[in-house]
C-alpha cells in the first residue's frame, strides 16, 4: 500500500508528546486560509520554485541541485516509511513515536490504518493529526490503530468556519465526539488566527466543547505563523497573510479557555 | 550590605568589561576565556633565552621564578578567593618551542604531507591529581621534594629536584605577595561585607601557604592557586572531579556551622570565575555507584550564579540521579552559556580495552579537557594535541589514484586511503616516541609534576615515568571525507553523472563557473553522513573502523599506547586551509567538518536524532571521544516535555556508545545581531568546540563556524 508523502521529519517536537517522527501525507480536503503547509494541499506531486536560488545553469531538465526547483511529493510504501520511522525507535521511549500528519491523513484511511498497524508490530506508538472533516467511516478507519488523536476545532461559528476553511463545522464536531466515545485519547487544538477566531468568546466556546469530550487530554492553542506564505508563492499560489498573535493575546486566550475547567496549553507560552 | 549573589552580579559585569579590555589588548582570541583579566599597561617580561629559546629544566625554572616574581598580583575585595593569571610563561617559548639540536627533520615531510599536529613539544594535556596537593599543601609538597632530594644520589636528578623545589618556592612567593596585597586592601576597605571576606581570604591564604587546606574555603582557594599557577606555567587546564573532591570539606564545615549554602555557592562561583578549568560532576564510582551529592547540585547552581564561560562536564550513567541529570539539562537551557557538557560512561569505559586499564582506572578517567579525559596523577596522554588531518590524507590518496595507471574506483581509493593512513599513523607514532625521549630535556612539567604519582619519588619528569602512557590520536575531517566517498559512490559510480577524470578537473579548478557550481551542488547534495542509513553514514563507519584498526594495529613499543578518536578542536579552519576542493562539493580552503559532526545542511530537518545516531555509530570504541555537538532553539525548553526530550536524546546517544555531548542553546536573533555587531552582546557565551568563549572574542571565521552549526540545528 502506498501514499504520496511530502516529507518525513525526525525529532519532531511539535506533533505530539515525546520525540516523534512526523510523516506528512500529501493532499487535503480543506483549504484553510491560513494553511502553513500549502504544498500538502494537492494530492499530486508538484514542484516548488524558488527563483532566488537558481544559478542559471540551464539544465533544469536534468535535475536541479541548487534548491531552485524542489520536487514535493513522493509515492512511498508503508514499509519504506516504516524503515525511516524505525531509525529513531531508540529515542521514542514511553511517550514518543510516529505522527501521521498532512495534508489530511484521513483522506487515506486504509493507508493510515496499515501504517499504524505495522508500527505497532514494531512496538512504535502512533498518533494522528487530523481535521476530522472526512466521512465518519474514513475517520474511524484512520484512527482505529492510533494511540493518540490530535484534531482541530478551528472555530465555534459554523458559517465563519465554512468561509475560511471550506466546510461547515457540525460534521467535524460530530466526528470528534465519535472518536472520543471510542475511548481514544484526544488533544483538541485551535490555530489562533487574529481577525478570525482570536477572541475570548470563540475560544471559550471551543473550550466548552472540549470539556464535553470524555477522553480529552488537553486543549491546545497554536499561534498562527506565516511560514506557509513563501511555500505558497513557490507553488505559484496566492497566500493570505494574517497577523501573528502576541504573547499577551495567547495568554489571555489560554486563560479564557481554562475557565472551562480543562487543561490548556499554548505553544511556547506556558508549560 | 550586598548579598553574595549581588556581589557575583557585580563581578560578572566586571568580567564583561575585562573581556572588552582583553579584546583591545589581544584582538580576537579564538580560544577559551580562561578567566584572565587584562594586563597592566606597564607590565613586561623579558625571558632569558639561550640557543634562541628556553630549553631545559634549568632555563625553565630560572625563567619561571623570574616570571612568577614579576607577574602582577590580583585581589578583588568583591571576591572571596585571591589570584588571577594574566600572562603565561610558556607564551615566551611559543616562537621557538623546540631546540634544533633535537632534530625531527626526518619526520617533517610526512607530517606536512598529512598535515598532522604531531604533539612534539606540547605540554600539559593530562591531569594532575588534586588530592595529592590537598592532602599535602604547598608545605607538604616542599617537604616531599626535599625528602626525596635528600635520598637521591644522582647529580642529574638533583637538577630536577632543585627545579621542583624552586617551583614550589616560586608559587609560595607568588601567594605571599597576594597575602601582602590582601592586607593592604583590608586596611582601606570600608564595605563591612567585603572587609569580612577579605579577612577570611587573608586567614585562608596564610594557612594554606604552607599547610594543607582545612576548610571548604581553603580547599577552593588552594584549587584556585593550583589552577592559576599551572596555567601560568604552561596553560594546563585540567581540573578534577569537583563535587567528590570538595565534598568532605563541605560536609565538615556545614556540620561545624561555619558554612552555609549561600556562602558555599559564592566560593564555588568564585573558583569558576578565577579560571575556566575543566571539572567533572557526578558519574559512577569504581563500583558503578552514583557519585551525585548535594554538592553536585550546589556546584551547578554556583555556575548559574557566575553565568559566564565555564567548563563543567556531567558524566551520565544508568544509575545516575535522574533529577540531577534533568537539572543539568535544564541549566543549559536556562543559562544558555554552553555548559554543562555531558560524557557517557558506557562509551568511555571502552578505555578498558587498552592494555593494563582496569575498570577502576577507566572510571577515574575524568573529563578535564576540551574533548578529553585523563586519569589524574597516573596518565601522560597529550590528549588533543595529536591530530591527523584525514581530509588532507584523503586528497593525497585521491590525487595518487588519479595520477596512477590504476583503475579509478572506490576500491582503489580505499586501498590508497589505508596505505596513507598507515603512513600517517606511523609518522605520528614516531613523533610521540621522539617527544617522549626528549621532552623532559626541553620543557619539563615543573608544576604538574608536583601533583603526579611517581615523579617526585623517582626524580623524573612525568613524560618519563607515568604509570600510563595512553596517547590520543584524533582524526579530523570525518564528515568531509565520508561525504566525499558517498558523493563518489552516488554520483560517479552509481548514477554515472560524471567520470573520475571529469571530477578531478572540477576539483583542480575549484568548481569554477556556472557549470562548476552545478557540479559542486550535485556533489554536495549526495547522501550525506548523519542523514540516516545513507551512503555517507556507511562511509563514515568504514572510515572510523579503518582509522581505529590502523591506530590500534600499530606496533607501538610499550609502555606507550595510542588510542583513536575524532576531534578537530577549533582547527577546522586551519586544517581546511591546506586541503584543496573535495568531492563532497567543498571549496578549496574551506573549513573541514567539526569534530565528529556532519557537514552543515546534512539533513533538511537537521534532526538531532539522526546526528546523534550517526555519531554514535562512528565511535572508534577505545574510550577516547568522538563528540556530538548539538545546537538547540531555546524555545524548546518552554514546551511541555522539552527538557525531557533533550535528556532522552543525550541518554539514547550514550546508550548507543556515544562519548561526549556539547550543547549550545542560542537565540537566533541574538546570535545574528551579535555576529553583525559583536560588542552588542558582550556577555554572549557559546561553546565553540570543546571550550566555551565569549562570542565577541571570536574572529569572523570562528563566528561563522558557530553560526553554520547553529542554523543547521534550527
Name some characteristics of this structure.
heterodimer; A: 271 residues; alpha/beta; TIM Barrel; two-stranded antiparallel ribbon; 31% helix; B: 714 residues; 3 domains; 26 helices; globular
Low-pLDDT windows of residues of chain B: none
Across the major sheet of chain A, the strand order is: 5-1-2-6-7-8-9-10-11
Question: What is the annotated CATH architecture of chain A?
Answer: Alpha-Beta Barrel
| Count of DSSP-assigned helices of chain A | 9
What is the number of domains of chain A? Answer: 1
By oligomeric state, this entry counts as heterodimer
Cα end-to-end separation of chain B: 44 Å
Percent strand of chain A equals 15-25%
* CATH fold label of chain A: TIM Barrel
User: Would you tell me the structural class of the helices and strands of chain B?
Assistant: alpha/beta
SSE layout:
The complex is a heterodimer of chains A (271) and B (714).
Chain A: E1 2-12, E2 20-25, E3 46-49, E4 69-72, E5 74-77, H1 78-85, H2 89-92, E6 97-101, H3 109-121, E7 126-130, H4 136-143, E8 148-152, H5 158-165, H6 170-181, E9 186-192, H7 200-211, E10 216-223, H8 227-234, H9 247-258, E11 264-266
Parallel strand pairs in A: 2-6, 6-7, 7-8, 8-9, 9-10, 10-11
Antiparallel strand pairs in A: 1-2, 1-5, 3-4
Chain B: H1 4-26, H2 57-70, H3 108-113, E1 116-118, H4 130-151, H5 155-188, H6 192-208, H7 216-234, E2 238-241, H8 242-255, H9 261-274, E3 278-281, H10 294-306, E4 311-316, H11 322-335, E5 341-344, H12 345-348, H13 359-363, E6 366-367, E7 373-374, E8 386-389, H14 390-403, H15 410-442, H16 455-458, H17 462-465, E9 469-476, H18 478-494, H19 500-508, H20 513-524, H21 535-553, E10 560-566, H22 572-576, H23 608-617, E11 628-632, H24 642-655, E12 660-665, H25 668-676, E13 685-687, E14 692-694, H26 700-713
Parallel strand pairs in B: 2-3, 3-4, 4-5, 8-9, 9-10, 11-12
Antiparallel strand pairs in B: 1-8, 5-12, 6-7, 13-14
Helix pairs in contact in B: 2-5, 4-5, 4-7, 5-6, 6-7, 7-8, 7-9, 9-10, 10-11, 11-24, 14-15, 15-21, 18-21, 23-24, 25-26
Amino acid at each position: 500500500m502506498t501514499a504520496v508523502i511530502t516529507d518525513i521529519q525526525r525529532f519532531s517536537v511539535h506533533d505530539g508528546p515525546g520525540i516523534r517522527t512526523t510523516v506528512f501525507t500529501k493532499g487535503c480536503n480543506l483549504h484553510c486560509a491560513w494553511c502553513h503547509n500549502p504544498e500538502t494541499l494537492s494530492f499530486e506531486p508538484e514542484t516548488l520554485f524558488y527563483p532566488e536560488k537558481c544559478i542559471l545553469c540551464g539544465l533544469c531538465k536534468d535535475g536541479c541541485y541548487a534548491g531552485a526547483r524542489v520536487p514535493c511529493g513522493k509515492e512511498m510504501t508503508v514499509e519504506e516509511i516504516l524503515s525511516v520511522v524505525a531509525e529513531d525507535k531508540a529515542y521514542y521511549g514511553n511517550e514518543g513515536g510516529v505522527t501521521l500528519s498532512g495534508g489530511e491523513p484521513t483522506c487515506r484511511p486504509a493507508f493510515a490504518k496499515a501504517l499504524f498497524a505495522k508500527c505497532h508490530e514494531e512496538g512504535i506508538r502512533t498518533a494522528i493529526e487530523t481535521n476530522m472533516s472526512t466521512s465518519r467511516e474514513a475517520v474511524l478507519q484512520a484512527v482505529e490503530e492510533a494511540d493518540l488523536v490530535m484534531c482541530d476545532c478551528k472555530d465555534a461559528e459554523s458559517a465563519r468556519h465554512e468561509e475560511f476553511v471550506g466546510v461547515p463545522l457540525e460534521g467535524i464536531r460530530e466526528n470528534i465526539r465519535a472518536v472520543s466515545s471510542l475511548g481514544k485519547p484526544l488533544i483538541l487544538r485551535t490555530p489562533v488566527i487574529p481577525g478570525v477566531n482570536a477572541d475570548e468568546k470563540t475560544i471559550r466556546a471551543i473550550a466548552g466543547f472540549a470539556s464535553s469530550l470524555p477522553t480529552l487530554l488537553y486543549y491546545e492553542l497554536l499561534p498562527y505563523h506565516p511560514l506557509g506564505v513563501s511555500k505558497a508563492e513557490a507553488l505559484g499560489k496566492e497566500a493570505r497573510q494574517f497577523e501573528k498573535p502576541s504573547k499577551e493575546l495567547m495568554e489571555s486566550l489560554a486563560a479564557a479557555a481554562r475557565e472551562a475547567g480543562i487543561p490548556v496549553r499554548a505553544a511556547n507560552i506556558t508549560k | 550590605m550586598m548579598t553574595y549573589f549581588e556581589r557575583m552580579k557585580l563581578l560578572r559585569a566586571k568580567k564583561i568589561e575585562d573581556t572588552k579590555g582583553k579584546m583591545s589588548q589581544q584582538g580576537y582570541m579564538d580560544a577559551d576565556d580562561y578567566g584572565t583579566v587584562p594586563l597592566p599597561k606597564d607590565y613586561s617580561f623579558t625571558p632569558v633565552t639561550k640557543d634562541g629559546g628556553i630549553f631545559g629544566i634549568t632555563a625553565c625554572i630560572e625563567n619561571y621564578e623570574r616570571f612568577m616574581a614579576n607577574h602582577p598580583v590580583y585581589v578583588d575585595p568583591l571576591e572571596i578567593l585571591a589570584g588571577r593569571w594574566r600572562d603565561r610563561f610558556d607564551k615566551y617559548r611559543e616562537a621557538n618551542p623546540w631546540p634544533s639540536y633535537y632534530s625531527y627533520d626526518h619526520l617533517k615531510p610526512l607530517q606536512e604531507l598529512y598535515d598532522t599536529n604531531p604533539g612534539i613539544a606540547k605540554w600539559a594535556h593530562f591531569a594532575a591529581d588534586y588530592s595529592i596537593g590537598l592532602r599535602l599543601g604547598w608545605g607538604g609538597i616542599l617537604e616531599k621534594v626535599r625528602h626525596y632530594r635528600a635520598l637521591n644520589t644522582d647529580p642529574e636528578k638533583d637538577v630536577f629536584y632543585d627545579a621542583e623545589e624552586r617551583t614550589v618556592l616560586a608559587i609560595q612567593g607568588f601567594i605571599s605577595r597576594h597575602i601582602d596585597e590582601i592586607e593592604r586592601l583590608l586596611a582601606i576597605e570600608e564595605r563591612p561585607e567585603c572587609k569580612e571576606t577579605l579577612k577570611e581570604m587573608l586567614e585562608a591564604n596564610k594557612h594554606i601557604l604552607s599547610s594543607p587546606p582545612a576548610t571548604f574555603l581553603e580547599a577552593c582557594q588552594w584549587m584556585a592557586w593550583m589552577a592559576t599557577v599551572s596555567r601560568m606555567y604552561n596553560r594546563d587546564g585540567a581540573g578534577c572531579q569537583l563535587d567528590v573532591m570538595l565534598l568532605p570539606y563541605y560536609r565538615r564545615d556545614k556540620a561545624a556551622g561555619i558554612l552555609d549554602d549561600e556562602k558555599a555557592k559564592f566560593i564555588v562561583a568564585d573558583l569558576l570565575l578565577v579560571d575556566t578549568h575543566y571539572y567533572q560532576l557526578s558519574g559512577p564510582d569504581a563500583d558503578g555507584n552514583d557519585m551525585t551529592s548535594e554538592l553536585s547540585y550546589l556546584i551547578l547552581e554556583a555556575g548559574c550564579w557566575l553565568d559566564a564561560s565555564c567548563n563543567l562536564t556531567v558524566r551520565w550513567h544508568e544509575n545516575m540521579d535522574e533529577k540531577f541529570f534533568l537539572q543539568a539539562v535544564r541549566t543549559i537551557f536556562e543559562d544558555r552559556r554552553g555548559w554543562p557538557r555531558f560524557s557517557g560512561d558506557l562509551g568511555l569505559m571502552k578505555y578498558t580495552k587498552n592494555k593494563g586499564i582496569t575498570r577502576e582506572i577507566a572510571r577515574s578517567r575524568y573529563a578535564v579537557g576540551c574533548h578529553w579525559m585523563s586519569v589524574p596523577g597516573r596518565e601522560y596522554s597529550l590528549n588533543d594535541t595529536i591530530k591527523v588531518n584525514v581530509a588532507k590524507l584523503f586528497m593525497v590518496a585521491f590525487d595518487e589514484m588519479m595520477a596512477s595507471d590504476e583503475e579509478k574506483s572506490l576500491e582503489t581509493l580505499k586501498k590508497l586511503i589505508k596505505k596513507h593512513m598507515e603512513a600517517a599513523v606511523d609518522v605520528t607514532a614516531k613523533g610521540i616516541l621522539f617527544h617522549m625521549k626528549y621532552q623532559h630535556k626541553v620543557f619539563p612539567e615543573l608544576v604538574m609534576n608536583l601533583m603526579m604519582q611517581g615523579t617526585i619519588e623517582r626524580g623524573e619528569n612525568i613524560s618519563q615515568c607515568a604509570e600510563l602512557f595512553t596517547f590520543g590520536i584524533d582524526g579530523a575531517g570525518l564528515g568531509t571525507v565520508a561525504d566525499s566517498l558517498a558523493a563518489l559512490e552516488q554520483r560517479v559510480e552509481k548514477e554515472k553523472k560524471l567520470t573520475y577524470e571529469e571530477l578531478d578537473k572540477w576539483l583542480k579548478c575549484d568548481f569554477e563557473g556556472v557549470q562548476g557550481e552545478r557540479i559542486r551542488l550535485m556533489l554536495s547534495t549526495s547522501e550525506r553522513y548523519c542523514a540516516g542509513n545513507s551512503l555517507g553514514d556507511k562511509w563514515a563507519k568504514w572510515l572510523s573502523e579503518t582509522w581505529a584498526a590502523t591506530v590500534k594495529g600499530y606496533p607501538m613499543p610499550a609502555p606507550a599506547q595510542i588510542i583513536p578518536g575524532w576531534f578537530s578542536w577549533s582547527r577546522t579552519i586551519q586544517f581546511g586551509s591546506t586541503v584543496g576542493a573535495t568531492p563532497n562539493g567543498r571549496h578549496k580552503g574551506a573549513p573541514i567538518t567539526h569534530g565528529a559532526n556532519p557537514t552543515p545542511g546534512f539533513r533538511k530537518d537537521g534532526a538531532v536524532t539522526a546526528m546523534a545516531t550517526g555519531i554514535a555509530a562512528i565511535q572508534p570504541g577505545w574510550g577516547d571521544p568522538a563528540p556530538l555537538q548539538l545546537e538547540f532553539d531555546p524555545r524548546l525548553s518552554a514546551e511541555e516535555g522539552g527538557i525531557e526530550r533533550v535528556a532522552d536524546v543525550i541518554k539514547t546517544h550514550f546508550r548507543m556508545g556515544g562519548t561526549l555531548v556539547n550543547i549550545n542553546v542560542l537565540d537566533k536573533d541574538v546570535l545574528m545581531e551579535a555576529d553583525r555587531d559583536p560588542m552588542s552582546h558582550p556577555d554572549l557565551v557559546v561553546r565553540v568546540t570543546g571550550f566555551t568563549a565569549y562570542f565577541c572574542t571570536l574572529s569572523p571565521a570562528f563566528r561563522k563556524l558557530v553560526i553554520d552549526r547553529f542554523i543547521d540545528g534550527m
